C-alpha cells in the first residue's frame, strides 16, 4: 500500500516516470488510467482476497490438527505418563514400606502381596579411607628473612574473620616468633577465649592454635609474605582441593622424593609436590577404573571407593614410589600391595510372615514378583534385636493413579470435542449483510491499524463452518469411544456415559465412585479395555486419529492431506497448498497484466499530451509575432 501512495504522489506531478499529466488536455489522467484498468485491478483484488482466505483456512485446519495431535501424544503415546495405551500407566501398582530407609517400588507386572523383612545387610563397596584427619591443623612459618626493627603486616584469618597482624621483625628468630605471637593473639583476643591462643609447637616455627580442649576445630590461614613469615603462598591450617601437596601439612609427612607413583586397579598415577589435592582427586576419577576418589574439607579426610558394590567392587592398590598414599590416608599401612573388595548384601524376606528365605546379591536391589526393594540405606537391619520392628511392605494396584488418568483423559476428550465443534458450528459473521472478506490494499489505506486487526479477526471466523472433514473426524471419534468393547466391558461399565444435554455435542460424564469401584473390582478387565492392542480403546482411538492426521507415506490422513502439517512431508504436499500455489501464480500473472495495462494507457495519454503541447507551441510560433 505504501507503493500505491507513492505512485499517487508521483503521478500528480507534471512528469513522472516519463508520464505526462493532463496539464495540456485538462484531463484527470491518473483517474482515467485507473478507471480503464479497473476491471483487471478488481480481478486482482478478488484473487488476493481468495488467497488470503485459503491461507487463513489452512491455519484454521492446522490449529485443529495440532489439538488433535496433542491429545494423541498425551493419552495415546507409549511414552506418556498419562497414556491410556501403556500398561505401566493403566496397570500401575504401588508399594509402601513401614520403614522409610527401605526404598520400594512396583512395576506394572507386580503381584499384589504383603512382604515381611526380618533382616537385611546392605551390600558395600570396596573402600579405603583416611584414619582420621590427614592435616595437622598447623602452618610452618619462617622468620629468617626478617630485618631488625622492621614493621611487618600480614593478613591473617581465624575462624572466618580476617584481620591485619602487625609485628616487629628481628634477625633473632625467637624474638621474631615472640613478637608475631603477641601480635596475632592481640588481633583476635575479642573472638577467642582467654585460655586459648596461637603458639609455636615444641619450640619450632610450626604455628598451631591451642583450643584448650573445647572440642572445636579452629581454622586459620596466613596470607603469603616471604620476608615476614616465609610464605610464598597463602597457607591454611587445614587443606583444600587447591592446596599443593608440597604445602600440605600432612599428619604423616611426605618424604623428600620428587615424584610419587602408585597404581589402582592396574592404572598408573604419577604426581609431584606441585600438584594439588584436587589434581589427585580429578585424575583418579577421570581414569575410568571403577573407582571414585573424594576429599572432605570438613573432616580433612581422603577416601577411595569402588563404583560397584558387592564382591564385584575392588581396589587393587600398589604404591611404587614415595609415600603419598600414606599421607593421604594418614596411615602406616604397607601400600606396596593392598587389595580390598566389597561385600555382598543379604535380605531375609517372607510373604506370609512365617516362612522366610535369605537372598544375597552384590547389588542393593532385589526384585520379587514386580516389587523392587532397595536396602542401600538400611545398613545392618535385624528385627531380632530388641526394640527393632519387622518391616512390612504392601504392594497393591494404584487405584487412585489409574482413576486420575481416566478422568484426565475424559476431560481432554471433552475439550477436544469443544474445540473442533467450535470450528464446525461457528458461521461466518456479517456486517451490513455482507461477509467479512479479507481487506484490499485500498480498504486498508482508509483504516487505522486497530480497525484492520478487528476486521481480520472477524474475517477469520467461520472459515470451517460445517466443514465435512472436521465433521467426519468428530463423528468417527465419538463412534470409536462408544463402540469400544473388550470382553464385554465398555465405557458404561466404568461409570462413563453421554451427557444428557443434547447441546453438549457428545461430551462424556464420569461417575467417579462407579469408576473407582470398577477399577478395584475388575482391575484386569479395566486395564485390558484400555490397553488391548487389538480392540482396546487406545488402539481404536489411535486408528481413528491416524486416519485423520497421519503423515506416513501412502497413509496420509484426510485432514493432513487437506491442510498439511508443518515440518512433515505433508507441509507442501496437500490440497490447500496446491490451491494456494495455483492462486499465487494467477495473482502474479494478473499483477503483470495490470502493470502492463497501466503502462500502456499512460503512454497513450502521454502521447496525447505531447501532441497537444507541440500544437500549442506551433500556434504560439505562428501567431506570436502578430501580437
Folded structure, characterized:
- The chain has 627 residues and is of the alpha+beta class.
- It is 38% helix and 22% strand.
- Strands 3, 5, 20, 21, 24 and 25 form a six-stranded antiparallel β-sheet that branches.
- A hairpin with a 2-residue loop joins strand 26 (430-431) and strand 27.
- Helix 3 packs antiparallel against helix 17 and helix 12 packs antiparallel against helix 15.
- The protein is flat and about 125 Å long.
- Residues 1-17 have low confidence and may be disordered.
Report the C-alpha radius of gyration, rounded.
44 Å
Helix coverage percent of residues? Answer: 25-40%
Strand content: 15-25%
> Could you give the count of β-strands?
29
> Which descriptor suits the 3D outline?
flat
- Number of continuous helical runs: 17
Question: Unreliable stretches, pLDDT < 50, 5 or more residues?
Answer: 1-17
The end-to-end distance, rounded to whole angstroms, is 51 Å
Average pLDDT level: 91
* Class derived from helix and strand content: alpha+beta
Biggest β-sheet description = 6 strands, antiparallel
Amino acid at each position: 500500500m505504501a507503493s500505491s501512495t507513492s505512485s499517487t504522489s508521483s503521478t500528480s506531478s507534471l512528469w513522472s516516470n516519463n508520464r505526462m499529466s493532463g496539464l495540456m488536455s485538462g484531463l484527470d489522467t491518473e483517474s482515467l488510467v485507473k478507471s480503464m484498468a479497473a476491471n483487471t485491478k478488481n480481478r486482482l483484488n478478488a484473487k488476493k482476497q481468495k488467497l488470503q482466505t485459503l491461507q487463513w483456512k489452512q491455519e484454521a485446519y492446522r490449529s485443529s490438527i495440532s489439538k488433535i495431535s496433542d491429545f494423541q501424544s498425551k493419552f495415546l503415546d507409549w511414552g506418556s505418563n498419562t497414556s491410556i495405551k501403556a500398561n505401566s500407566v493403566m496397570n500401575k501398582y504401588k508399594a509402601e514400606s513401614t520403614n522409610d530407609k527401605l526404598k520400594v517400588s512396583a512395576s506394572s507386572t507386580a503381584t499384589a502381596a504383603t512382604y515381611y523383612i526380618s533382616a537385611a545387610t546392605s551390600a558395600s563397596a570396596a573402600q579405603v579411607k583416611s584414619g582420621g584427619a590427614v592435616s595437622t591443623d598447623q602452618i610452618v612459618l619462617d622468620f629468617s628473612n626478617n630485618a631488625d626493627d622492621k614493621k611487618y603486616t600480614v593478613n591473617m584469618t581465624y575462624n572466618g574473620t580476617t584481620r591485619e597482624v602487625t609485628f616487629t621483625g628481628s634477625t633473632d628468630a625467637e624474638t621474631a616468633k615472640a613478637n608475631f605471637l603477641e601480635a596475632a593473639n592481640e588481633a583476635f583476643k575479642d573472638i577467642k577465649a582467654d585460655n586459648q591462643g596461637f603458639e609455636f609447637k615444641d619450640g619450632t616455627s610450626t604455628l598451631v592454635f591451642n583450643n584448650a580442649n573445647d572440642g572445636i576445630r579452629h581454622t586459620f590461614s596466613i596470607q603469603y609474605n616471604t620476608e615476614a613469615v616465609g610464605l610464598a603462598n597463602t597457607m591454611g591450617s587445614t587443606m583444600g582441593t587447591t592446596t599443593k601437596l608440597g604445602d600440605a601439612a600432612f599428619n604423616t609427612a611426605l618424604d623428600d622424593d620428587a615424584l610419587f607413583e602408585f597404581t589402582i586397579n592396574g592404572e598408573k598415577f604419577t604426581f609431584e609436590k606441585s600438584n594439588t589435592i584436587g589434581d589427585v582427586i580429578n585424575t583418579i576419577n577421570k581414569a575410568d577404573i571403577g573407582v571414585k576418589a573424594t576429599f572432605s574439607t570438613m573432616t580433612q579426610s581422603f577416601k577411595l571407593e569402588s563404583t560397584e558394590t558387592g564382591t564385584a567392587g575392588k581396589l587393587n592398590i600398589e604404591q611404587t614410589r614415595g609415600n603419598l598414599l600414606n599421607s593421604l590416608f594418614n596411615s602406616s599401612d604397607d601400600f606396596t600391595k593392598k587389595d580390598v573388595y566389597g561385600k555382598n548384601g543379604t535380605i531375609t524376606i517372607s510373604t506370609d510372615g512365617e516362612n522366610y528365605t535369605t537372598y544375597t546379591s552384590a547389588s542393593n536391589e532385589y526384585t520379587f514378583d514386580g516389587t523392587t526393594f532397595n536396602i542401600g540405606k538400611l545398613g545392618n537391619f535385624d528385627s531380632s534385636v530388641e526394640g527393632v520392628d519387622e518391616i512390612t511392605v504392601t504392594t497393591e494396584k494404584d487405584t487412585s493413579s489409574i482413576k486420575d488418568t481416566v478422568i484426565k483423559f475424559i476431560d481432554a476428550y471433552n475439550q477436544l470435542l469443544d474445540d473442533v465443534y467450535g470450528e464446525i458450528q461457528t458461521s461466518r459473521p456479517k456486517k451490513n449483510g455482507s461477509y467479512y472478506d479479507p481487506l484490499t490494499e485500498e480498504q486498508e489505506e482508509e483504516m487505522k491499524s486497530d480497525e484492520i486487526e478487528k476486521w481480520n479477526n472477524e474475517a477469520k471466523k467461520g472459515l470451517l463452518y460445517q466443514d465435512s472433514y472436521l465433521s467426519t473426524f468428530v463423528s468417527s471419534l465419538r463412534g470409536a469411544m462408544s463402540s469400544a468393547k473388550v470382553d464385554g466391558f465398555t465405557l458404561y461399565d466404568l461409570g462413563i456415559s453421554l451427557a444428557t444435554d443434547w447441546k453438549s455435542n457428545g461430551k462424556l460424564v464420569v461417575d467417579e465412585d462407579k469408576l473407582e469401584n470398577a477399577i478395584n473390582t475388575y482391575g484386569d478387565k479395566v486395564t485390558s479395555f484400555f490397553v488391548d492392542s487389538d480392540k482396546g480403546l487406545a488402539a481404536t482411538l489411535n486408528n481413528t486419529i491416524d486416519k485423520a492426521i497421519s503423515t506416513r507415506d501412502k497413509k496420509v490422513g484426510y485432514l493432513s492431506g487437506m491442510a498439511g502439517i508443518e515440518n512433515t512431508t505433508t507441509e507442501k504436499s496437500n490440497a490447500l497448498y496446491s490451491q494456494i500455489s495455483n492462486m499465487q501464480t494467477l495473482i502474479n500473472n494478473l499483477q503483470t497484466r495490470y502493470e502492463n495495462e497501466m503502462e500502456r494507457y499512460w503512454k497513450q495519454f502521454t502521447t496525447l499530451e505531447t501532441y497537444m503541447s507541440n500544437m500549442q507551441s506551433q500556434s504560439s510560433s505562428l501567431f506570436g509575432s502578430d501580437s
